[in-house]
Structures
1.
Amino acid sequence: MTERSFLGKSIVSIRDLDKEDLDLILQEAEKMEKIIHSGKKPLDGKIMAALFLEPSTRTRLSFEAAMHRLGGYVITVSDPKSSSAAKGESLSDTIRTVENYSDIIVIRHPMEGSARLAAEFSSVPIINGGSGSEEHPTQALLDLYTLKKELKNIKGKRIAIVGDLKYGRTVHSLAYSLSKYKDVIIDFVSPPSLKIREEIKSDLTDAGIEFHEVESLSEVIARVDSIYMTRIQKERFAQESEYEKVKDAFVLTKKLLENTKGSIPVLHPLPRVNEISYDVDETNHAVYFKQIFNGVLVRMALLNMILGGKI
Ligand code: CP
């Protein structure tokens, strides 16, 4: 597998990437901090369209920052109400339009399968910036990058993934990506109504990954090497009353972290609501703000590889 194999490719699902692809992206991301300070413009003249038809702070701004850092240009839809999607335009027509303005499109859309559909219609590469409850592959890549930085090695590590495992797209992409690291063990911690999807469990089983499902973080906190907290996805619930029942299911506190086997890293894709108390921010466990910067590096690497920037 060479760097050139990403040239012109779309990133729709983490499942489309093998272990060598993941390693290559993480290696390229390592080089990007230097690029930021070098003044080089490997993507000078290239245009990225950020088509965000669902709210975002980190994904959109980090992709935009990444493109600027590489010397490229950005055009943006940041509010679905300000695009013609609000007038009933189909996603395929939107893509057939935006491809005329840009060399690559990053899309966030509330519908599962939206990024795959966009890639089918687009003549330029598509990057999935979050497709409904389904997947968020670039988040998984920055999560892997952060885990690798913090734990030195992902192989053989035990990771607790906590919160909304049913609707949390970052969880789905992370679980698939961890399954490429053979000796990883995953503890899925959720309320019964928000358990990890059956198809993901089936894929993990096929990949030979050991995983456990529990309902209490204190059951696993002493044995894991890292904790990945997630928000309960209020916007995905059909009934607000169902959300109310689970919204405070897990709150990670500084006190609870006294039970870990050391200064284990706590990750979170963010935004957080109340699932990590603010007193955790002052501890060595808190790496969720480092994740944000890592996201710029990983997205720089992806854009550069797909658009063929010379560094
Ligand atoms: N992690 C993440 O996807 O954050 P945003 O929703 O702010 O983009």
2.
Amino acid sequence: MSRVPFAGVGRVVSGAVARPRTSFVCQQCGAQFAKWVGRCNDCGHWDSVVEEAVAPRPTAGPQRTSIAIGAARDAKPVPLGSVEPQTASRVSTGLVELDRVLGGGIVAGSAILLGGDPGIGKSTISLQVLGELGRRGMKALYVSGEESPEQVKMRADRLGSGDSILILPETCVEEVLEQVEETNPAVVLVDSIQTMHSRELASAPGSVGQVRECAAALVTMAKASGRPTILIGHVTKEGTIAGPRVLEHVVDTVLHFEGDSDGGLRLLRAVKNRFGPTNEVGVLEMGESGLRDVGNPSAVLLAERPKGAPGSVVLPTVEGTRPLLVEVQALAAKSALAMPRRTTLGLDANRVAVLTAIVDKRAGLKLWEHDLFVSIAGGFRVAEPAADLAIIAAIGSSASDQPLPADLVLFGEVGLAGEVRAVRHAETRLREAAKLGFARAIVPAATARGAKAPDGLSVEGVASVGELWSLLFRARRPRPEPLDA
Ligand code: TYD
Ligand code: MG
């Protein structure tokens, strides 16, 4: 028996007489339907059918998609050598950290997608940037689909960002484009892309089809006119920008704004950047009058560190190419539960579980009798394996109730056999530690042999967790381990 006997029935047959202005397209297989269906008749995928505007078909030649923008009508192939390199003209945003993430400022005609949790400061940073551009004589248009002009005004006053910004409360993208034509701003901001809708589509604002259509229209405008355009995007619970992934493909730059919205520190990350490095991070601080550059984030992150407390360890981590010193904290407390609790914050729970098992096995601590909490202070997140050694030291310190020296940093990846492996950017990490006055670093043995120690920092190498134990902790000797044999 065939699986889908009438696959294709109900599809919009190309060349049909009465062509609808929109059609419903499966995002998995591309099948088209005249009306919305919950399950694609063709590929069987659930919830993958999305409304799309039907572009008028050109009379001859292949159909252009709305994404193929900026391309000349009658393009001819030319040797790459004869193409003049584009010297991207950039304008500074007034925030050093944002400029760094953008690769040196905003590029003319670029489309930037700024994503982040609610309340993280997307509207704030955008307003600050528009204010700064206004001061540089650039006319800025703030399209607000979320807040009234009065609300935006209140925030602008608080930020002291100029009155030169034009504000447009509008959610219809066709109207927005019309107003852009009329007022001819130098830069356009849309807050947020999820509130925009196109008249062409019947689906609700925020739906995948709407978000994609509106973004494509705005990006086309940016490319054709050379106006930098910033789109603010909401983030779903899973942490991706709400709407289709294709949103990330149409824009030039995707920035993620993260951090602990209760704390002051914010991290700005370039996830994608056609005009600069990706994986670059900027560190900003939310204060009374908006966001400020943080010149020395390591010092801020370590400012409240308890000295001489068991379970506190400093880790030189690297975000992109940027070193940051963060505090790893562990608390091992006797548990009354049959299944002791394991809680992590800012670290991967599975990773910490593996490291806990390694500590148990190699150092003979009875961690199964303890509840264990491990976190990165200050709402920071660390995903790199270079954190392993510091996590192990923090757990060991808390479980054995022995504080570690206050002037010590540790980094290194730890394997299942308890071996300590080298990690990237070792010298960058050591330099940052030395810069902030740390005197001692425990690193993978291979790194200690190869890396140049900065002045004032004594670097010790360890090849195994056992060696780490004998360096740091008294009394409790590790069991002999096969690696040392
Ligand atoms: P907002 O920019 O509205 O966030 P988003 O647009 O990402 O949802 O940020 C609002 C938060 O920032 C809010 O909790 C208040 C705080 N805030 C300050 O602490 N200082 C300021 O100067 C401003 C404007 C906001
Ligand atoms: Mg907002």
